[in-house]
Amino acid sequence: MNTDAENKKIGVFICHCGGNISDYVDVEKVRDVIKDEKGVVFAKTNMFSCSDAAQQEMIRAIKENGLDGIVIASCSPRLHLQTFRAMAERAGLNPYRYTQVNIREQCSWAHTHNRQAATEKAVRLVRSGVARTRLAIPLQEIRVDTTPGVLIIGAGAAGLRSAIALADMGLKVYLVERSPEPGGFIKGLGRLFPDDRDGEEMAHSLSKAAIEHENITLFTEAEVVEKGGSVGNFLIKVDIKGQNPASFNVGAIIVTIGFSPYTPKNGEFGYGIKGVITLPEYKKLLAKQKRGVEYAGKTVRSIVYIYCVGSRQSAGDDRYTYCSRYCCASAVHTAILAHKLDPHISQFHIYRDIRTYGKYELLYTRALEADSLFLKYDPDEPPTVEKTNEGLLVRVKDRLTGNEEIEIGADLVVLVTGMTPGKGGRLSGILKIPIGKDGFFTEIHPKLRPVETVMNGIFIAGTAQGPKTLSESVTSSLAAAAKAAGLLLKGHVDIEPLVAKADADICTWCGACVPACPFDAIRQVEIKDKKIAGINPAACKGCGACVPACPKRAIDIEGYTDAQIRSMISAMAREAK
Amino acid sequence: MQRLDIKFSKEIGSYDKFNAAQCFNCGTCTALCPMGINILPRILFRYVLMGMKDKLMENKDAIYSCLLCRMCEDNCPEGVRIAENIRVLRRYIGRHVYGL
Least CA distance to B78: which residue of chain A? Predict the structure, then answer.
């Protein structure tokens, strides 16, 4: 195949996209202009380039014309980049010698009012695509061997469950827990919704299974302090209380550090007054009771629950504006448990909105049947709690009766508290994974890549990602386990070769590129006694931040070299010259 | 300011089958009521559920204005037996207030 830019044979395929493109861009005209472009030996329009038939035709055209590169002017690369790369490969063409030009989102859809101008723009876009392809060199995916081990940070329900899953698949698991015992939040909480299983028992059986598993190494009172390397081969250092630090290699990392329950401020809904407790405190209290509900030695006859404490708050220093999702169902379920302990107990739920979604709606109905009474409050006029001679008194305006002012005498006030981000300490700095606006770790895409982070090989699961119920937490932890295993069981990962590369002849190692790199991918290396910038292709994301930082212009991004970008600009601006 | 006393609703509940807990306050019943009394029947029922006996007694007229036409009941998405509940309230008032 020809690598000389001057003699490259390039094929161009322009897509109608049904009418998505051709309604606003004269695709035939684009083809007529482009077919005379330097290097273009074949130009054709397709009704749907992505269709099987069109792909077959393109493969034939590549083979028959001995094409060195192709340009497909169609939709967004997000949609069909992989489709056409695979097609190029089937035709025996290096997939990195194919350029996709977006004339749908970036042209036809954007300029529906002006067919002529849209057509002219399409010509320029395709021309620049041709220019880039002329300079394209074949690239190979970077293959990195992987270490068959996984680091899991946090040994709560999510961490333990994913550890067991991965260990069962034959991978070595290092489980790092900050507290002295594994088990996490569910320990001691008593029966949990929706199936009434005991939290203590679940935490115990998960911990036992993990501890006894030959593939799992558990570190308690330990903390990850250093992470080196990149996907497939991370080097981890863990500090362990009272022991020497441990170092080991893993191929992937799963973060399941969980959450912290919201602690109300002193005086917030009466918190601090005796008898005003949070939902986790109340659940721990109930877990110990056999018959009836007792608090501080007295029988409880009336309980008031106040919802959305530490969730959906718009004011204050700690802004927890999101809904914590689990608390409504948990409170309603706990009310059912209290009713079982004492059917004569009066229970009042003061809520803003009830979100017992999915199967948990049944819990709400069961609570109603168990004589729970629900009163809706206005966030502008929240309920107040005070201590009187008769006991606790809750005042609230009930919206459902048109703001009737109501007093409720209570023996116990339960503040239904939400989830706040887990205390990861320096973890986000060490792992370099992003934190969202609510303070939890964020995934790449909530629907399509729900447990992956922007750092290759680092996954997040459970409530480290945001408020979740226990079952959602475990579901996501198993998803993360599947992702990590999918990465490691193959023994290697293939990484896109569109990464930065420093020219050893030009680079003089000034180090200016190091602070520019957001992914910690650049280190000083020595080649033939010369110090230069070594870029770890497995850590590099090809973002290009290092390119302008280099005073010698020694760094290029493969597939987007300076020469390619310059030629694209020239091609676009040809008439302007 | 009214003090809630769930005992009262339990009293009515045990006195006869009063069902209104499943009401989710959609307001369909009130909108359909030919008598156009806006506390009928959902707010009235909430007074019972919350044990606001005084409020209930203040609204005796509304309780006796109901035509028992069942238009509300037929259209209640939660299947609250509205007309029967009104009868329960009338029986309670008849017995406890008028000594019938």
Answer: A365
